[in-house]
Amino acid sequence: MTAPSYHLSFDKYYDHLVRVHLEFIAPIDHVRLWLPTWIAGSYLVREFSKHIAQVSYVINNTHHIAQKTSKNTYVLPHTHQHDKVSVHYDVYCHDLSVRTAFVDSTRLFGNFTSLLMMVSSLEQNLCNITLSVPKAFLQKNPNATLAIGLPYDTHTHDDGVDFILNNIAAFDSYDYPFEISQQTYFDFNVKTNARPVHHRFFITGRHNTNIHRLSDDVQMICQSYVDWLGDVPFDDYTFMTVATGSEYGGLEHISSTALITPRTDLPSILEQDEPSADYQRFLGLCSHEYFHAWWVKSVRPDVMMDNDLTAESYTPLLWVFEGFTSYIDDLMLLRAGVISKDSYLKLITAQLNRYAQTDGKAHQSVAESSFDAWIKLYRPDENTTNQSISYYNKGALVALILDLMLIKHGHRLFDVIKHFYDLSKHTSNKRYGLTTDELGKVISKMMGADNWQDFYDNYIIGTKDLPIQTLLSPHNITIITKDRAKQWGMTYKDDPLGLKISHLQRDSVASRAGLSVGDVIIAIDSIKASKDQLNRTIALTGDDICVHVFRRDELMVFDVKAGKLSRHSEYFLSGDGGAWLDFG
Ligand SMILES: [Zn+2]
Fold it and tell me: Can you tell me the distance from the alpha carbon of 222 to that of 134, in angstroms, rounded to the nearest whole number?
């Protein structure tokens, strides 16, 4: 059977279109095509097919239109088994995030989940993929290179250049994002017992990065992971980064990661020995996505062993995968020696304060937060922090307390993770599907079944206060708590008319008075609303304060109780960290 071949033409980059041409031999009559609705690592149904207008196909020089049978599936009614079929469609690609695809005059980026339709029953067949870059794009970007965590051939011709990926299982392409643009890149090797492992780090977009500094720091971080975990679950690793004004994010893949970062998070030539908070954030992102190669790609939630990318894949375990990773990512910056203990304590303090200020901690467990990622975490609204928590944020803190409990029994969280990674190496597909039961069994052996059960009942499926202070104090950590007043229990944004309410705490001074999210406060105590006027009046006692607002286009008046403030705690951590932060 001829291998299916995909040809992606970027000659309409200026209209943000990728023209896809797919050829294959029909495996059956009435062939079916489908496109994913979500991408692994980002738990939201994103409906990639909404960016495709029409799918047409040709058999024996006759043109036909594919028939749509659901939001992301098509049938080719005129196909018969063994026909040579040629399918055409355009994909609109103008989402800057790392989860979809984006093409313009400077950058051709894509996840194949947004671009390549699978031929039903040929998903595992080897295919060829050609990325065809037109001359016009190369004239604007003369040094454009391809970043992708796969080997490829290059073919230069009169109309441009083709990058060709040979013999990849069609479905597997979904884990290899690509980027073609003017890239800065550097290479480094990470030492393993068996061999040095090549890594390449690409940066594109406008930036002025201190490459030597970045290279040194990233290499130290990667080496620390390998020193701990023993080896690597890939042959070669690719970081691809686009620098922009303010966007932030990353997505993990089998042998690569796609990152988007504010350019101010990249190190400059003026970078001090201790990385700035912004640069620490970027190093933390690199550390986070890199670790996922072991912890999400090799060891996975059991339901994600073979992802069905057309429907939600529910798991209560994202607290283990994203939570442990969110704890380990920063801890490894310290273990690798790229940040100081003081910096590390500031990072964990920020996690703690974010959690302390999330009222939803009383209403949603971290296991529920994991399960409901599909409808809650990726779809935040003004009510989110009142009823939900993040499995990244609470997940990192439960990882911290689990690590501290394990230390009391002579173990570390590092040992738990390495145990499961070692198991993944002995499976046929190098993947291990983790369940809560398996995790519990291994941790119970280390710290006792009762301790595991208490931990699980209270903090994973329960919403009990986390015993962070109790567990940190034996490690010479002092926690100071300060009581902070939140102005009327609301957050707001400046608005031309005054202050626009973006969030209200439940049962707060503002909500009890009748104020609502979306209201624009125009006057407080009969003076034009401003941050200063709000600060002056919240200190008043005695009479109620008269507040004028526009709700939509209607003027309303409310009386806010003076002197009643909504409060929350703020924590400050200091100290040495003892055995917790001692990596020898
Ligand atoms: Zn992650």
Answer: 36
Distance 318 CA to ligand 1 centre (A): 9
CA separation (Å) from 151 to 59, 82, 115?
32, 31, 20
Instruction: Determine the distance separating the centroid of ligand 1 and the alpha carbon of 290, expressed in angstroms.
Output: 9
Residue whose C-alpha is closest to residue 21's, from 11, 158, 126: 11
**CA 325 / ligand 1 centre spacing (Å):** 7
Query: Where on the phi/psi map is residue 139: left (φ > 0), alpha (ψ -120 to 50), or beta?
Result: alpha
Ligand 1 mean position to 267 CA, how many Å? 22
Q: In the 3-class helix/strand/coil scheme, how is 59-104 assigned residue by residue?
A: ECCEEEECEEEECCEEEECCCCCCCEEEEEEEEECECCCCCCEEEC
This prediction's pTM = 0.96
126 Cα to the center of ligand 1, angstroms: 29
Ligand 1 centroid distance, CA of 455 (Å)? 23
205-260 pLDDT, tens digit each: 999 999 999 999 999 999 999 999 999 999 999 999 999 999 999 999 999 999 99
Enter the tokens of residue 12: 């309409």
pLDDT at position 487 is 78
> Residue 321 Cα, ligand 1 centroid: separation in angstroms?
7
- Residue 510 Cα to ligand 1 midpoint, Å, equals 36
DSSP-assigned letter for residue 321: I
User: Which parts of the chain register pLDDT below 50?
Assistant: none
Read off the pLDDT of residues 517-560 as tens digits, 9 standing for 90 and up. Answer: 999 999 999 999 999 999 888 777 677 899 999 999 999 999 99
